[in-house]
Design brief:
Blueprint lengths: L2 E6 L6 H15 L3 E7 L5 E4 L5 E3 L14 H12 L8 E4 L2 H5 L9 E4 L9 H8 L3 E4 L2 H9 L5 E3 L32 E7 L7 H12 L4 E7 L2 H13 L3 E4 L6 H10 L2 E4 L7 H8 L3 E5 L5 H6 L3 E3 L1 E5 L12 E5 L3 H14 L7 H12 L1 H13 L17 E7 L3 H14 L4 E7 L5 H8 L2 E5 L4 H15 L4 E6 L2 E3 L3 H11 L3 E9 L5 E3 L2 E3 L5 E3 L7 E3 L6 E4 L18 H11 L3 E12 L9 H14 L5
Helix pairs in contact: 1-2, 1-13, 6-7, 6-11, 9-12, 12-13
Length: 628
């Protein structure tokens, strides 16, 4: 089948409208014959039948060229509006849940919906939308996980993309600013740029205040393009009073002007909760690096394009603008992390230490998210045909396991841990994250053909997060176990942990019972006192709900391990406690099971760092004061 009927908004400049235009062009590049059907901004469907009849509303009369569109975009849209395909052609509906179920769409051989969520858990509208389509497309691994966790069938991932003909580097604008650049002519030495709507999940207040705290008095600027200028300008004026270079662009920008806007900056920054994070792709196509949240849908483009990821934690949605998500959570930057990542981007850029040059960054962005790449994936989905209704997506309990094992010397223990894992979980994917071992660990791992990430940080939390990043890049979609190299799993350990996930849908993290080598039960989960001290729950049960479990060995469910981050402010102590509290804040339970057992040869080295443990306890209590 080389035909497609595409139902989407096309006339707006951003959001789903921009996506609809891009998919139209991508499908045409892939050789599909596409009929474009318009959903107006107010969600009135103008559907033109193949015989010229109008089944709802009035006939949509496009005006060419569309405002704010390039000649190429307008021509692509004109062809789509004038093309007619057969009634059996698959129907792709792009938009929010209302678009998926709110209209009387024509009969078709294959009804496909493309949508995204920017908060979790999902509200009921998505269930109605998902039930109205044969295949549901979502743009990011995070979206894929949360939709599958709700047991929606036939969920597939199709990344969003941008038109590389429009989003292209515009180096001349740094010497010759465009007309909309009304700020003082002495451009700062280094300039951050940002585009955002003034809604809660964009975290724009944190962006302006964090920038001001970090860069006031320096020759570094922040240029922002918000949807509500008045609201942002009030805070920007406060930032300028404190000595920060913050300016607000008021004009509406076309796609081509947006490319100039990105190119005018040195780094794009947006610490928001995104279903995907399309601006990161647009900025990369203009050769500009990005800073964004290392949580939610933005993880995909940031990982693929080498962006700087800000540590984040989840908070409940509050404002009226988010009424459809009330009761859900979105992500906000962790204290100080946004400042640190912006500083890191600035120092690496000015110091010539960026891994991605502008040319390489654009080339990679086009190869992954350009019209040809996305069009090819879309064509594969269409040619795959309508899935059988009897076929469900893989249940969460049947997804594969990956193990992130941290190592630092103790090679013999690492060998025993890996041997036990291979013996009792041979199908598990193993990633060794080594912190500068000097005892031959690297050479041994290479000789065994194991995946090894070699770091030199002295920070267990950061090392584990690097393992997470590697799994994201490799496309892992199942469970993740975090494990130290002094742990030996036993027969049946994974089957018994998986059973807890199957039987208790609310559980997000499960740990086995840990036994010392002399046969003594070390613990089976932990509780936390109000003073921040740990108390063990030495209860021999199949499942016990606890405050936290130790990261010497714990397993995280598929839709959770990308949603929370290991906080680097806890390099070794309290990093697992913090991680479990972040999971609990998202509404998940933390559990341990006595049915699964592992041997734990606890290292003596940690006992010599008791002062660090006390310091981290203070930081933990400060961060989670309301929860402890």
């Amino acid at each position: 089948m080389n035909e497609l009927r595409l139902v989407a908004p096309f006339h707006n400049i951003s959001g789903y409208a921009n996506l609809g235009r891009f998919l139209l062009g991508a499908a045409q590049v892939a050789g599909l014959s596409v009929e474009a059907v318009e959903i107006e901004r107010r969600e009135i469907l103008f559907e033109l039948g193949v015989d010229g009849s109008v089944s709802r509303g009035r006939k949509f009369e496009p005006m060419y060229p569309f405002p704010n569109l390039s000649a190429e975009q307008a021509e692509s849209l004109r062809l789509g509006m004038e093309t007619t395909v057969s009634k059996e052609a698959p129907l792709l509906i792009v938009g929010n849940p209302t678009a998926l179920y709110g209209y009387d769409y024509p009969e078709t051989s294959h009804r496909i919906g493309l949508t995204m969520a920017e908060a979790a858990p999902l509200y009921g509208g998505w269930q109605r939308g998902a039930e109205n389509v044969d295949t549901l497309l979502v743009p990011s691994r995070w979206n894929e996980h949360i939709f599958k966790a709700c047991k929606y069938p036939h969920v597939r991932r199709l990344s969003l993309g941008s038109d590389e003909r429009v989003y292209t580097p515009q180096p001349h604008v740094k010497a010759d600013p465009p007309m909309w650049y009304f700020c003082k002519p002495d451009r700062p030495k280094y300039l951050f740029v940002s585009v955002f709507s003034t809604c809660e999940r964009k975290n724009w207040e944190q962006l302006l205040t964090s920038f001001t705290d970090e860069f006031r008095g320096e020759d570094v600027g922040l240029l922002v393009k918000p949807t509500s200028v008045k609201e942002v300008e009030q805070l920007a004026a406060w930032c300028r009073m404190r000595g920060a270079w913050v300016q607000v662009v008021e004009e509406k920008l076309s796609d081509a002007e947006m490319a100039e806007f990105y190119s005018f900056g040195d780094c794009y920054v947006l610490p928001s909760t995104e279903g995907f994070g399309l601006p990161f792709v647009e900025a990369a196509m203009c050769g500009v690096q990005s800073v964004g949240l290392g949580a939610g849908g933005s993880v995909d483009p940031l990982c693929d394009l080498g962006g700087f990821m800000v540590d984040a934690h989840a908070v409940p949605v509050q404002t009226q603008l988010y009424h459809v998500y009330r009761g859900a959570n979105h992500f906000v930057p962790q204290r100080g992390s946004l400042r640190r990542k912006m500083r890191e981007a600035y120092e690496k850029h000015t110091g010539g230490d960026l891994f991605w040059t502008s040319e390489r960054l654009r080339s990679r962005a086009v190869s992954l998210f350009g019209r040809e790449a996305i069009g090819r994936k879309l064509k594969e989905i269409i040619e795959g045909g309508k899935p059988a209704r009897a076929v469900e997506s893989r249940p969460i309990e049947n997804l594969p396991l990956a193990v992130v094992m941290t190592t630092h010397n103790h090679l013999e223990e690492t060998k025993e841990a890996v041997a036990a894992l291979k013996a009792h979980s041979p199908a598990a994917r193993l990633v060794l994250v080594d912190d500068n071992s000097t005892d031959g660990t690297r050479e041994w791992a290479e000789g065994e053909g194991l995946t090894l990430l070699r770091l030199s940080r002295g920070n267990v939390a950061s090392n584990r997060q690097e393992g997470v990043r590697h799994l994201v890049e490799e496309g892992h979609e199942g469970y993740v176990a975090f494990m130290d190299n002094d742990v030996r799993v036993t027969a049946g350990w994974w089957d018994k942990i998986r059973r807890v996930f199957e039987e208790r849908w609310s559980v997000g993290i499960v740990a086995p019972a840990k036994y010392l080598l002399d046969g003594t039960l070390q613990n089976i989960g932990n509780r936390l006192t109000t003073s921040g001290n740990a108390g063990e729950l030495s209860l021999h049960r199949d499942c016990v709900i606890c405050d936290y479990v130790e990261s010497a060995c714990m397993v995280v469910r598929p839709d959770l391990w990308q949603a929370i981050c290991w906080d680097p402010q806890f390099p070794i102590f309290y990093e697992d406690t913090d991680y479990c509290y972040a999971a609990r804040q998202l509404g998940y339970d933390v559990a341990a099971t006595g049915g699964a057992r592992v041997w734990h040869n606890a290292h003596q080295t940690s006992r010599s760092r008791e002062n660090e443990a006390r310091q981290n306890r203070v930081k933990f209590l400060k961060k989670w004061e309301a929860e402890v």
